[in-house]
Design a protein that fits this description.
267 residues, alpha/beta, TIM Barrel, two-stranded parallel sheet, 9 helices, 8 strands, 41% helix
């Protein structure tokens, strides 16, 4: 899954693709590089980010979505927690809703997913982007988030959403300490028993710099190392900024026997 941030303030590439044409060109490059899903977002959800209203979010993403959905063959995802934004995105051709609130941020989101028959990814976040890094705590981070994702899955299935349209994301960096992030990555294979594809979004995040002992370090190499580990753990959807480099790493890994014939990776 290739990331397309149409924002002025995302943590890694804020303002690089805020211009609509720059975002469109970037999305097309990611598709050419091998991305199997394009994830477009118009509101930064980094820690302490400023919320964006629905009108501004739509203004940012809808022209981009209309352009890329008509020009790529891979599915396009909208990264939003607002039903009205998701509805307009679906009209533009989007096939997946990627909701960082686990479909809790807008009570109309579950009915929209059911009615539209699109795919959906529900993520775990403790708090909101404005509060999530204020001393996040868990009894057992892996067990607690496993329980939460099971409950979100069950809610969607009870509403009539088909299980084969549901993806789950433990939310690396969203209301987690450094130690929580490491524990989730080390144990993410335990979430396979939920019976849904798993998405991990680790790309360029701050905990990688901390692991490397240099918060200002280029995080691409660390991101690639985690991507290989995720492929080994059979994580189905790997959400990254650097699609071409991730594809190269996964192809080499697969060529030397790192993946069996039944495993699938998404970059």
């Amino acid at each position: 899954m290739g990331i397309v941030n149409v924002t002025p303030d995302s943590f890694s590439d804020g303002n690089r693709f805020f211009d609509a044409q720059a975002a469109i060109d970037h999305a097309l490059r990611l598709a050419d590089a091998g991305a199997e899903i394009l994830d477009v977002g118009g509101e930064s959800t980094r820690p302490y980010s400023t919320p964006v209203d629905a009108d501004e979010e739509r203004r940012r993403v809808i022209p981009v979505l209309e352009a890329i959905c008509s020009r790529v063959e891979v599915p396009v995802s909208i990264d939003t927690s607002k039903e009205i934004v998701a509805r307009d995105a679906i009209a533009a051709g989007v096939e997946i809703i990627n909701d960082v609130t686990g479909l809790e941020g807008d009570e109309r989101m579950v009915p929209l997913v059911l009615q539209s028959q699109v795919g959906v990814c529900a993520m775990h976040m403790q708090g909101t982007p404005q509060t999530m890094q204020n001393a996040p705590t868990y009894r057992d981070v892996v067990s607690d988030i496993h329980r939460y994702l099971r409950e979100r899955r069950d809610l969607m299935l009870a509403a009539g959403i088909a299980q084969n349209r549901v993806c789950l994301d433990p939310g690396i960096g969203f209301g987690k300490t450094h130690e929580h992030n490491i524990a989730l990555l080390a144990n993410c294979h335990r979430f396979h028993d939920l019976g849904c594809p798993l998405l991990i979004g680790h790309s360029r995040k701050g905990f990688i710099g901390k692991l490397l002992g240099n918060k200002e370090a280029d995080r691409m190499a660390g991101t690639l190392g985690i991507s290989i580990a995720l492929a080994l753990k059979r994580i189905q959807v790997i959400r990254v900024h650097d699609v071409a480099e991730t594809m190269q790493a996964l192809k080499v890994f697969a060529a030397i026997g790192g993946l069996d014939g039944d495993a699938r990776t998404h970059d």
